[in-house]
Amino acid sequence: MSTYPVTRLPLATAPLRARLRRNRLRVLLFLAPGLVGFAVFLVYPLVMTVWLSFTNSNMISPARFVGLRNYRYLLDGDPLIWHAIRNTGWLVVIMVPAQVLFALGVAMVTARLKAGASLFRTLFYLPALAPPVAATVAFVCMFNPNSGPVNRILGLVGIHGPLWFNSPDWSKPALTLLALWGSGTMMVIFLAALLEVPAELYEAAELDGAGSWQRFRYVTLPTISPVVLFATVTGVIAGLQYFTQAMVASQVANGNIQPAPGYPDGSTLTFPQQLYIAGFNQFHAGYACALAVVLFVVAMAFTVVLLRRASGFDIEESPR
Amino acid sequence: MSESRGRPVTRTARRVARRTVRRTLATSLIAATALLTASCSTGGASSKADTGAGDTTPVTITFWHGFSSPHEITSVNSVLAEFHKKYPYITVKAVAAQTDDKVNQAIRGGTAPDVAASFNAANVGGWCSSGAFQDLTPDIKADDVDMAQIPKAVQSYTAFGGKRCTMPWLADTFGLYYNKKLFAQAGITAPPRTMSELVEDTKKLTSFNADGSIRTAGFMPYLGAYGMLTEHLVPSWGGKWLTADGQSNVGGDPAFAQALTWQKKLVDWFGAKKLVTFKAGMGDEFSAQNAFETGKLAMMVDGEWRNAFIKNDKSSVDYGTAVMPAADGKPELHGAGYVGGNVIGMPRGAKHPGAAWKLIKYLTTDTDAVTTLADAIGNVPTTIAALNSPTLKLSKDAHFAPFLEVFKNPLTTTTPASPDGGAYLTNFGHFVEKWQSGGVTDLKAGLAAVDKQNNAALKLGQ
Q1: Same domain, B105 and B250
Q2: Which structural domain, as residue segments, surrounds residue A259?
């Protein structure tokens, strides 16, 4: 079990070390643009965000270290943060899975179409091209309980439509409908994955007596599981960062020129909105950074958990 | 052996490699951090009485303001043209429809305009305390500007913590607009003077469709609809938002509970759901579809600017204006109301502070400039001289008279500046949403909780 002193090894000679150093420098040189970008646009903002979260920064005058005060305020001082957490949680738990399932369903239908497939695929994809602000304004107008066409049509069939974006109970479901309508990009990704599933696998499964559900469960799903995972992870991250549509919908539905974050009754106030208000409206950049750190940790945790769970699923269930 | 090809095979070689990588990364990170830290601090010239009265070097300054309606932009530009005549060496590049968020971002990014105006006086506290806007006191002293020409209430919302970082650039007061035709149909001969009369008139003026929905609302008591905001309502009860030492007062001042109780009673008479449905169909506040302008709303609380919008929208509504009714038992408050307004200042980082100050001084204290713009956009002038000026056409306009009355009333109040950009109003707004939808059972306890929340928010930035 005796070991040679490392310095005696012929590989560690001076010329070799010099060659290794040159090699490493060359590698670093090629990596440099990426590393600089990584350091400047990710590491630096991250480090600064963590540091500022322990200060009373307003991003204008010099910041002072305040310890954990911002985090304490988050837990027991901010009257709106739990609204924001609940709403963002709702969107992640309800809206994201709904969007994934809807996009997968539409992709499966359009993948099977024999005639007019291109037309329907284009039609389902088109809403994804609409700018989020314009799409949200149009949606709020369509769902206007007083003058919008949706409630008028519902009225024709005897249904008294809800207040949609003007109701605390219906505002998030209405935002979910907007998300489903605009899930064309996800649908296209699913469609590409579905069209890549080898037809022989379906034929073999059919010969073995598999029904449509079994073919989906044991052939389609395992084959496209990496795409489902991708859609879920990016969907969860987008859900945690949900901002524009909620901000626009609340203001348009309120009908007032002033922004009305959370209208009605705080039901559309999301975590990133509260972060924005604290940092940019109320001069509490330090507190906003504390919120950003929490959001980052939660997003990371979600991603890690999803990736771990999904990799186990992929290995066990994959037919390959 | 093949597995180890391309990477250092000995422990020493690996250690050397790791050290090199670590050193390189650490050096890059420190360098980048130092570079960006230096670039993140906003700098620029500061206002230090460099008014440069004799300096006539041609200069172009940038002026951001929030006006966005075509008639408003034209009016601002015509006043700026007069400024250019007076100071031919100063060219003003005006940028319309700018928001406070954009101004804040520009200040943080070191690209602030020379002069910025805002509709939101609630931000003055944050701007003064953070240094985002420069203290104009040295310029005011150097030019011997008479601040006594600006009423005290107006002075109070344009300065904070002993710093005068903004000047008032026209004011907004709020009153009651009423539809004369609908009044006549309901047999009402005069606008209400008390809140009880307002309720009675509302009931007379309101009509419902066969399905129970509101056809015409006598008044919209739902807070958050158009100008019906708590800050415009509580002056009728004499409510004060903050105590003398800057603490939240909504639980301590009974005026807030009284105002909200009155408001909820009227909401309940309509039915909150019916009101929300009606509100959704009221039409955009600043468009010709405004419910008052189309006759769907018989009375509403609004700012003096509505007169100009009614005219510009070519609305056919036959209307009158009045001061807000006072709370029952508080006749002394009849004639008082809410005053807020536009503010204008010099952001930190302004490149031409001397010329910027000249523009601010001209727009806020030159009687002709103030009266011309006030007449053109229908806002209340903010200097005594402009108010009393024989050239002020608004003073002869019967529709405008109540708003001038509110402005001159010593009991007229405002929402005081706070260092957190008026977060107390945001917190109160969320409470009110819950209140009017029936989600608050104990009003007194709820308001006390809002006080606690507001005070915690005020401490956060300290």
Answers
A1: no
A2: 79-317
For residue B418, what are the CA distances in angstroms to A230, B136, B159, B449? 46, 19, 10, 19
pLDDT digits (tens, 9 = 90+) for B69-106: 888 899 999 999 999 999 999 999 999 999 998 999 89
Does residue A300 share a domain with residue A224?
A: yes
Question: Residues A53, A89: one domain?
Answer: no
**Chain A residue numbers touching B251 (CB-CB < 8 A):** none
- Please write the tens of the pLDDT for every residue from A108-136: 999 988 888 889 999 999 999 999 999 99
Residues 37-76 of B with CB under 8 A from A: 37, 40, 42
Contact A281 B421 (CB under 8 A): yes
Out of B276, B285, B419, the one facing A283 most closely (by C-beta) is B419
With respect to residue A289, please indicate whether it lies within any of the assigned structural domains: yes
| Residues on chain A touching B273 (C-beta within 8 angstroms) | 163
How many independent structural domains does chain A possess? Answer: 2
User: Would the CB atoms of A147 and B24 count as touching at under 8 Å?
Assistant: no
- Residue in chain B nearest A161 by alpha carbon: B277
Q: Could you list the beta-strand ranges (E) of B288-376.
A: 297-303, 319-322, 339-345
More confident residue, B351 or B246: B351
Whether residue A241 has pLDDT greater than 70 = yes
Looking at the structure, tell me whether residues A142 and A268 fall in a common domain.
yes
- Domain match, B365 and B334 both: no
The answer on A245 and A277 residing in a single domain is yes
Determine the distance in angstroms separating the CA of B388 from the nearest CA of chain A, rounded to an integer: 32
List CB contacts (< 8 A) between A52 and chain B.
none
* A44 contacts B29? CB cut-off 8 A: yes
CATH of the domain at B209: 3.40.190.10
Could you tell me the two tokens for B293?
């302008």
Residue A60 shares a structural domain with residue A86: no
pLDDT of residue B345: 97
Residues 6+ apart with CB under 8 A from B327: B194, B195, B236, B237, B238, B255, B258, B259, B262, B333
* pTM exceeds 0.90 for this model: no
> Does residue B36 lie in a domain region?
no
- Could you tell me if B133 lies within 8 Å of chain A, comparing CB atoms? no
Is residue B26's pLDDT more than 80?
no
Chain A within 8 Å of B462 (Cβ-Cβ)? yes
Residues B267 and B298 in one domain: yes
Which residue, among B279, B445, B300, B231, has the nearest Cα to A264 in the 3D structure?
B279
343-382 in chain B: CB under 8 A from chain A? 348
Note the pLDDT tens digit of each residue in A246-302.
Answer: 999 999 998 776 778 898 989 999 999 999 999 988 889 999 999 999 999 999 999
Flag if A260 and B126 touch (Cβ within 8 Å): no
B282 close to A (CB below 8 A): yes
Q: How confident is the model at residue A14 (pLDDT cuts 50, 70, 90)?
A: confident
Which letter does DSSP use for residue B137 in this model?
H
Say whether both A206 and A113 belong to one domain: yes
- Does residue A227 sit in the same domain as residue A253? yes
Whether residues B167 and B180 fall in one domain: no
Total domains in the fold of chain B: 2
The per-residue pLDDT for range B247-262, each reduced to its tens digit, is 999 999 999 999 999 9
Whether A265 sits inside 8 A of B284 (CB atoms) is: no
Domain annotation covers residue B26: no
Same domain, A58 and A198: no
Domain boundary among the residues A21, A44, A69 is at A69
Residue from A242, A289, A285, A278 nearest A81 by CA: A278
Residue A257 with chain B: CB contacts under 8 Å = 285-286
ipTM, two decimals: 0.76
A contact test, residue of B15, B16, B28 with most A CBs within 10 A: B28
In a domain, B166, yes or no: yes
C-alpha to C-alpha distance for A225 and A238, rounded to whole angstroms: 19
For residue B20, is it within any domain? no
**Structural domain boundaries enclosing B70:** 59-172+340-407
